[in-house]
UniProtKB/TrEMBL annotation:
GO terms, molecular function: pyridoxal phosphate binding; transaminase activity
Superkingdom of the organism of origin: Bacteria
Xref: CDD domains: AAT_like (cd00609)
Enzyme Commission number, as recorded: 2.6.1.-
Keywords annotated in UniProt: Aminotransferase, Pyridoxal phosphate, Transferase
Name the UniProt record assigns to this protein: Aminotransferase
Domain Aminotransferase class I/classII large intervals: 22-373
Organism: Streptomyces guryensis
UniProt record, GO biological process: amino acid metabolic process
Family: Belongs to the class-I pyridoxal-phosphate-dependent aminotransferase family.
Amino acid sequence: MTDNPIFAVAARAETLRARGADVITLAAGEPQAATSAVVVEAAVAAVRDPVAHHYGPAQGDPDLRELVAANVTRDTGPAWTADDVQIALGAKHALFLALQALVGAGDEVLVAGPGWPGHAEVVAAAGGVAVPVTADKEFRVSVDALDRCRTSRTRALILSSPGNPTGAVHPESRLRDIADWAQRHGMWVISDDIYRAFDYTGTYQSILRVAPQLRCRSVVVGGVSKEHAMTGWRVGWLAAPREIIASARLHVSRTITHVPTVNQRAALAALDDHDTPARAARDYARRRTMLVEALNQIDGIDCPLPDGGMFAFPDVSGLLHDRGWSSSADLAAWLLDTAHVAVVPGEAFNAPGRIRVCFAIDDETLITAIDRLKAALGPVPEADTRQLEEAR
Ligand SMILES: Cc1ncc(COP(=O)(O)O)c(C=O)c1O
């Protein structure tokens, strides 16, 4: 059994740090910022409230479920109530709860490739078989590709838009095609909306928004991890038809009992804080441009501008060829050891020849990381990372 390869990069970076190296991590799949003060204060208040010291409902705090339902209704169109929501230990756990309800041993679930390895991992953990669907050149899933992967065992599709690591946002017409396909073949659609706040094109739509008829065969997964810099708090959710929620509630009740109450109160405060995700989205949009422009100045790197998410996903195959590295994993290891910049090799996402570079990091650190990358991988034309400083 292998662990998530992204954690392996983080572990190597930690080892170097422990030896005194000044390592910058652009490998993490999380915002580097601290959780906002308003959320921390809500958690402190919850810690002091004896009600939060005792057992709560397995399905999750009713106030939190109500707010989640209102948000999912706003995003998707069809009405959802607190009864349609299960609170989970992060979006990954929410995905697992949905899959253990939907998938029997050997059932197949289609996942986008390149894609977040966690999708395949939760499918496997739930007893299913993840089948990678090769995305098109713009990293979007097409109906042709879905059809090529469909068998009599296919139960569901996991769609994440904006995606990780690609940042691809599926436009309305593509979502409509996918929805028609799902309906035609009686597929479940699991919409992983964890990056919904980070759409830099203004084109993000939930698949249910364009195809509300899918409501009875859809699971909407979300959480506070990315939007609110709360990855360590472990609060996510699923909104789904009642039979899925009943199964998820039973699973939670039999295993973890419920998500810790203090953390749910923190998530409740987060959902009331609209400034933090809006500010993060503005900052990430600016950093995305700065990073992509800098990467494209390096000979042998071709970096598309991602539509959404928190990552650049450049093609480094030209660099590998020119400089003699045999794989992007070799390049990433070399960058970590010599430039002390951690990135994730594309192999982790089934995309050899690429690397994933996170831009959810503060301006100063990102500028330093860019300077190091350029020094290590140059020569490059006069670089202008100072532009950002002037713009600020
Ligand atoms: C597409 C996607 N979904 C879900 C998750 C997991 O989110 P959480 O930390 O809330 O479990 C991640 C984390 O990287 C992700 O990239």
